[in-house]
Protein: NADP-dependent oxidoreductase domain-containing protein
Amino acid sequence: MSDRKYITLKPSGDKIPLVGFGTARISPAETAQVIYDAIKVGNRLIDGALCYGNEAEVGKGVKRAIAEGIVKREELFIVGKLWNNFHGKEHVKPIFQKTLDNYGLDYIDLYLVHFPLAIEYVEPSQPFGFLNSNGELKLAKAPLQETWRELESLVDSGVIRNIGISNFNVQSILDLLTYARIRPSVLEIEHHPYLQQSRLIHWVRSQGIQVIAYASFGNAVFEQVPQGTQHLENLMKNPIIVSIAEKHHRNSGQILLAWAVQHEVIVIPKTVNIDRMKSNLAIDHIQLDEDDLEKISQLDANARFNDFFENTYGFNLPLFN
Structure:
């Protein structure tokens, strides 16, 4: 359980902050300063990934904050992710070392399998994504069991403290749990009032797995949204969220974060604005009442905005089904 600021992870017993900071979609040119600012205002959880293209700059911001005595390394909780091109058992350790070098650290606190999807290997010096240079999605024969064994070995060696998963559904997790010697500590998923995923969250919690939410502000985060979701109002401007914010004398973003945290879901909002960084952290004393929670529960539309396989690439891969 949490003390409103932290949740304890299994099996390590490490404490992860309930409110952290995301690094997706921050340009490399400004990332180092943004991360330094985020730590300076009080963020202690930094969620990054190799595919965001700014890992090394995240590392520079972290290193500066530590060097200036703003924070000690052990007070930070640093997250990295294994991208799809590198699931092959021979690639896991070298690509993790790249992340470790980018961050400039001796260990990271949590390393996630970014997607339950293995695609053909590319050299890390080359651009990587979901498609190869011919615009094709080429799957790789890299069983997750072999990938997971490599991650467990990295935990054994002390360079990763916790391992977890991202964008996995129940079926994928069920399979993983049949062979995991070290069970996943965390599942990271898209989560907001338009996509509440209550059954999934309840089940993974029953398995001792905690949940990190990305895209806590829903469609306000994305420039494009998939077909069938365009009718949904910008979540930050939704009248129900706005009215609850006015009731509590807070802003909409704070209400959305407080709603997740009240359900013990970890949040990682991203902003380059220092005032919003402070605002996102200042949610400790927001307590939504039953009326608030009921109104927000009615907003659930099973609307997934990060459905990039169809929206961005235009091909049919129902990964989340």
